[in-house]
Every structure is written in C-alpha cells, then in structure tokens.
Queue: 2 jobs
Job 1
Amino acid sequence: MLLSSCSSGCKCGSSCLNKPFQNRPVKKLKLVKTEKCGSGIVADEDIEQGEFVIEYVGEVIDDKTCEERLWNMKHRGETNFYLCEINRDMVIDATYKGNKSRYINHSCCPNTEMQKWIIDGETRIGIFATRDIRKGEHLTYDYQFVQFGADQDCHCGADRCRRKLGVRPTKPKMSSDAALKLVAYQVASSSQK
Ligand SMILES: C[S@@+](CC[C@H](N)C(=O)[O-])C[C@H]1O[C@@H](n2cnc3c(N)ncnc32)[C@H](O)[C@@H]1O
Ligand SMILES: [Zn+2]
Ligand SMILES: [Zn+2]
C-alpha cells in the first residue's frame, strides 16, 4: 500500500498532521546483541501503536546493481542482508550507508511494519509501531517484501513462526473496498493525533 504524505509546501501550515517523517521525532533505539539473530534493536522508550519509529534509509540502487551486490555478497559468504525493495526496479541498500533501522530483525509476529509513503514525489519507507511497545522490547517487522536471503532459517521464536525469512505470510486477499476503508481509517486516525 502506498500512502501519501503532504509535501513540504502544503497549505495546512504548522498544524499539518500528514507528515509522519518530517514532523515526528525518531524514537530512541538501542543497538543490542541478540541470542540467535546477530545484532538487533530494542526500544529505549515507550512507543505507542501507530507511531513513526524511524525511516529506513540507505543507498537507492537499481535492480542490476542489486543483483551484482547480491552476487558479491554470496561470494563473500555474507549472511546479513540489508536490502529493501521499493518497487520493481528500485531497492534501498543499507549495507554500506544506513541508520539504526538496518539492525531491526525479522519476526513472524512483529511489533512494527514497513510503510511506503510518497513524499514530494519520492517513495520513502517508514517503520511504524503496529502495537504499543514498552521500553526494552525488541523491535521487529515482517521481512515480507524483503525477499533477499529468503532461504535463511528464522529464529524469531514466535508460536506461529514460518521457519524461513522472506516467506510471505498468507493473508486473505483484501477486497478493494476493504482496502479503501483501511486507508480512510488510517487517514482519519493520523489526523486525530
Ligand atoms: C537487516 S539485517 C538485521 C540485523 C542483523 N541481525 C545484524 O546483525 O546486522 C537482516 C539479517 O539479520 C538476520 N536476521 C534477522 N531476523 C532474523 C530472524 N528472525 N532469524 C534469523 N536471522 C535473522 C539475517 O541474517 C538477516 O539477513
Ligand atoms: Zn499538510
Ligand atoms: Zn519466525
């Protein structure tokens, strides 16, 4: 789903509530070592459901460059992948340049999600809380549209773990009517904050 942010010059003035990336401070996050998933991120403050956590940033590369990099990574025996697909021909690669978001691990029962937003004509990826998160909890999202390294075993520990990273969850297909209602709800609830 592609969400649309107000542009920097919108007419809403300083009260604009439709700029999740610009107007909301990044949450305090701490880099930690996990038992089974390498490095990971824990919340260093309470986060409320729906709140913007951090932007997923990195180098924006095309499919061809992505393929070359994946090939090189495979040769080097890399096991950590920091790639996020924006659309069919664009990938954000946080391998060499990125922020703390690159350390957020996958869970089959996550507490955040990636959302794609159009801001001033650019597609950007934000990580948002899908439930209330207490200080000290591990942050996770579902790597469902990060298909790289999909054959890796998942160690998220969730009851209904899908056992592999990158396996898409089986969701009942949403009708366009239901999808529209969801957008309307998200717009309404974001303007209440
Ligand atoms: C975006 S990085 C996350 C940070 C990474 N743990 C690190 O130490 O830099 C993604 C990589 O972390 C590991 N990882 C993330 N979630 C995992 C999980 N649920 N089970 C096993 N490995 C996981 C995999 O190696 C994956 O390619
Ligand atoms: Zn606005
Ligand atoms: Zn899992």
Job 2
Amino acid sequence: MYSDAHFHLSERMKKILETNPLSGIISCTTPKECIEAKAFLSKHSSYTISCGIHPWKCDTITWKEMLPFLEKAQIIGEIGMDNVWCKKDLDIQKTIFEKQLQFAMQHKKPVVLHTKGMEKEILECIRLYPNTYHVHWYSCMEYIEEYRDLDCYFSIGPFPSVDKSVQKVCQLVPCDRLLIESDGIDAISWALHRNIQDDEYLSSLYTIAKQIGDIKKKTAEEILEITYHNLQRFLTQKTL
Ligand SMILES: [Zn+2]
C-alpha cells in the first residue's frame, strides 16, 4: 500500500497520480492551489487537502483571502518558519504561523509543519498550541527527541541515504509515527540531482521505504504497510 503524506499538485503530479492512485495529502499554499486540488479531488477521492500560508508566502498571501480555505480544510499546513530557503522577515513569518496554529487548535485540525532552520523556535511555538503535528521532511540533527516526545508524526522525504539527519529521524522515531512523502516529483529530482521520469515516482517511494526499513530492520513492504496505516490514523485523528 503506497502513501505519499505530503506533495504539491503540479500538472505533472496530476498525470502521475492518474495512473498510480494512492493515499496522500495534497499540500496547498494559495487559494488557487486549493481550488485546483478540490477539482482534482472530485475525481480522485483517495487524497486529502492540507491548506495553509507557507512561510515563503507569509507576505504575499493574506489571512483574509486564505481563511475560507482554512475553514474548509481538514488539515492545516504546511505552515511554519524558514531562515534557510527564504529571507522573509521572521517577525512576519512568526505572526502568521502562530495565527494559524491558534486557528488549527481552536478548530481541532491537525497541522503539517515546515521547520527549515527554525526547528528550535517552532518547537517552542507548538508547545503553546497542543495539537496533532506532522513534521514534514525534518532535516536537522537536533531536537528530534523533543518533537518525538510531543507525539509528532514525521514524514520521511527523498532520500534517507543522502541525509544524515533524516537517518537520525528514522532511528529515533518509533515506526508508528513515521510517514513517507515525496514533496512532489520535482523534489525527488532535486534530491537525486537528475531529472527523473514519471514512471520512477512509485519506485522512489519504494526506495524511501527500503531505506527506512534498512534502519528499522524491516522490509520495504512492511514499512509501506506501516506508513500507510499511520497516514490513515493521522487523517482521522481527533485532536485534543
Ligand atoms: Zn512541501
């Protein structure tokens, strides 16, 4: 059973998913993306939408324009802060992040976190907003235990073998809190430093499962099964 706990819906991903149906979360970062994902979902019901103002868009997408979509979404995210891949003002990032954390907690919606470079600050923030959290593609050698002890889910991106911090996540986080994600077909190409073909999408998810399994002393098939069920549990989680 394949699952993809976090990806963005490009035209290419739509085509790939038409022929490789699986279970997954489509991450939408703008109203336009939410509308497109909803149209896709009308024909492909095995996916769930997550929606949130991404830290990279904290000063271009307004709370007002996103609010109707946050209200409809089952999952809030990816939201967070980032001081590595974007140079947006951190005060603006934090304000919009906390506003969304508060909204998610009040409306009992689980949250997907983007933590790049801001792992410590985000950990401090989420302690203030008890909820069910899914830490997307965590890549930091520190604070893994602290997030784990808050019962967070962790999605493992492409590929554990090329990132020591992702390996450390696999080692420290129990199997029942692990998920598999591609972050979209382009992210797989990015991780491999080459353009991959559409038909390499599923085999890439398999490779992630295999590499998690090597660390957890399980087969790729067992990891695919476990992560699939973990995703279903995350999706039906009733938050506090
Ligand atoms: Zn993403």
